[in-house]
Structures are given as C-alpha cells and as structure tokens.
Amino acid sequence: MRYCFVFGTRPEVIKVAPVYKFFVEKGEEAFIVATAQHREMMDMMMNVFNIEAKHDLNIMTHDQTLDSVVASIMQKLPPILQREKPEVLFVQGDTTTAMACAICAFHSKVEVAHIEAGLRSHDLYDPFPEEMNRRVVDVVSTYLFAPTTKAKENLLKEGIEEQRIHVVGNSVVDALNMIRSRFELSRIRSQIVPFDTYVLLTLHRRENIGEKMVSILSGIAKFAEERNVPVVLPVHKNPNVRKIVFDTVGSNRHFFLIEPLDYISFLALLEGCWFVVTDSGGVQEEAPSFGKFVVVARKTTERPELIESGFGTLAGTDKDSVYSAMVLASEKRLDPSENPFGDGKTSERIWKIMRGVRT
Ligand code: UD1
Ligand code: UDP
Asked: Which pTM does this prediction carry?
C-alpha cells in the first residue's frame, strides 16, 4: 500500500508528523507532499519533527486569498498524484490545504483518509472557512478518523456510514508526548521569557480579524493592567493579524510580543503559563495535558470536550466578556489530567486500522 501524507500549515505538520513517522517506522511506503500554504511556519515545524517532503508545492504568497490557495493546489497536486499513484491520501483537519487536496484526491480516485474528522461548530461561518472545509473533507473521505465520540456522533447525524468512522483520539497528544519525553521544557522556558507568571495568548482566526480582534485585545489589556501581569503573544505571520496586534497593543508595556515559536518552545511556554487565551484549535486540545485553563476567544468551538471537562470557557469576542472570562480563569486551580482529546496512541490506532482494512 502506498500512502501520501499532505500538509501545508503549522498545525497540520504537528498533527500529521506523528502518524507519518509511525507509518514509516512500521515499514510502510509513505511519502509527504507539502503545499507550503505556510512557508516559514511549516518549515519550522518540519525541522522540529525531522521530516522531509518528497514534493513541495511552494504555493504561499503574501496576504494570499482562499481562492488563490485552492487554485494553486488544484493546479500543482494532480500531476503528482498521477505520477506517484498513491492508493490513500491522508489530510488533517480543516485548512484550505486539507480541503483542496482531498478534492484533488477524490477527482483522481485516490482514497482519502481524514485525520481529525467530525469536528463541527454547527455555524458555517465560524470558524470561516474551516467549518466548510472540514465538512467537504468528510464527504469525500473513505476513512474518517474522529478524535472523540462526539465527533463520531456529528458524522452519524450527517448520514455518514458508521463503518467509515473510527474513533482514535487526536494525534496532537502523540505530538506533545513526543516532545515532552525528549526535552526539558522548564529549562527551555527560562531562555524565552523572563517572567515566572504570565498569561499566554495566541490569535489568528480570519473571522476575528478586524474589530473583533481589537476588542479581544482590549479585554486582555484591561485584565493585564489591572493585575499587572505580562501577556506573552507569539504573533502569527498573517500580515493582517500582525497589523492589528502591533497597532492595538504594540506599545502596551504589559504585552510581550514575540515571533512564532517552534513547537518545543511553545509547549515550554504553555507548561509554565498561568492560563491561556486563544482562538486556536490545537491549543485548546493541548492545554488539558498541562493542567491549563483556556479562555477561548471565539463565538463557537468545535471542541466542546474542553468546556465539558472543566478546562475552558467560551468567552466570545467582546472586550467585557473576554475580561470576565480571564477573571474566571485566574481563579482556577487545575492539575494536568486525562486529556479528553487523546491518549497519545492515535497514530498506532490509525496504522492498525489501515492495515486491518487492507489485510
Ligand atoms: C491557516 C488556516 C487556518 C489555521 C491556520 C494555522 C485556512 C483557510 N486557514 O490560516 O485554518 O488555523 O492556518 O495557523 O487554511 N504567512 C507567512 N508565513 C507563514 C505563514 C503565513 O508569511 O509561515 C502569511 C502570508 O502572508 C499568508 C498569510 O500569512 O498569505 C495567511 O496565511 P493563510 O494560510 O492563508 O491563513 P492563516 O490565517 O494562517
Ligand atoms: N504553536 C506553536 N508555536 C506558536 C504558536 C502555536 O508551535 O508560536 C502550536 C500550538 O502548540 C498548536 C498549534 O501551533 O499545536 C496551533 O496552531 P494554530 O493556532 O496556528 O492553528 P489552529 O490549531 O488554530 O488550526
């Protein structure tokens, strides 16, 4: 069996790398196609996991549009599929890379395997365009690897046949376990931030860019000023995010703005922070492993398990609601606990299922 793994952005590399590496360790014929939807952030993560792409589509352009990303992938991937003839193509999550590559595979009659299938916010425009992307990928997938039973239920409600769905956990826990077992995070942390107490923040969602991001930052600034606590923000490479962040809090002495971190450094900061404020998907899944409370600066979440397990709250995007959620977060005392998103054995389960299906 010949497997193709595709990714293009930072979170896809983090979640695909453990699965790809497991397949290679087991002697499977597997290769990577990188779209490079994110150039620097993707490369940074590939270095962390020490993986190389057989084909790099190199599609990223400055301030790219969703359509330009789709068009470039649809032009460049099909000839590679025709030449390489994989039997299964793995995509991960809900990016434009995942959606466009899944459609190309479908057109070429290559079976699609979806890592992180079945996540739903039930609002087509939030997150935008990810809720559409993940639905499209699930429609064209033969193998749907759902992280949780809730994700499986979402798929069943949409009429997807049960035999296509496999609950396997989320490979992000495999990824973070790989890093934790190899690095002493506390030593790394002291080289990045000069504080013992800080709030960790990440922001990048397209639907938040504009007034919503300004009001989120204003709520965070109010909390930081009142408590006199630093906020550490690795600023995403998206130029529209950077402009808002630097215009809004660039000169605020409570904000410690840094470049995007490699995965090891980011986990070191997550391990040591007071709590996290984020609109990221992956960070919501990682925080429980470190016992950190998450203020989700969004209107919806496709990861309700975070809230149900007591590790997070949905804050919305208003200044006051974000501020209040941070006050709530500041009162929480949590320990690292069983992660509702995975147990670190997702890659092994996926490999067993693929082998079982084929033998
Ligand atoms: C993308 C995904 C989003 C995911 C996020 C992870 C889509 C539609 N969105 O959003 O689901 O959560 O990645 O971070 O697929 N840029 C660089 N260097 C980089 C990365 C980005 O310069 O390494 C800049 C470029 O100008 C690029 C822009 O950021 O055009 C936007 O990147 P893009 O991938 O289109 O959108 P994201 O908002 O990063
Ligand atoms: N991350 C990282 N460096 C950073 C910020 C985030 O390595 O400076 C990691 C984080 O641990 C998580 C992933 O990137 O695994 C989340 O990526 P992002 O928020 O860009 O995308 P999303 O998960 O929302 O799709």
From this structure: 0.98
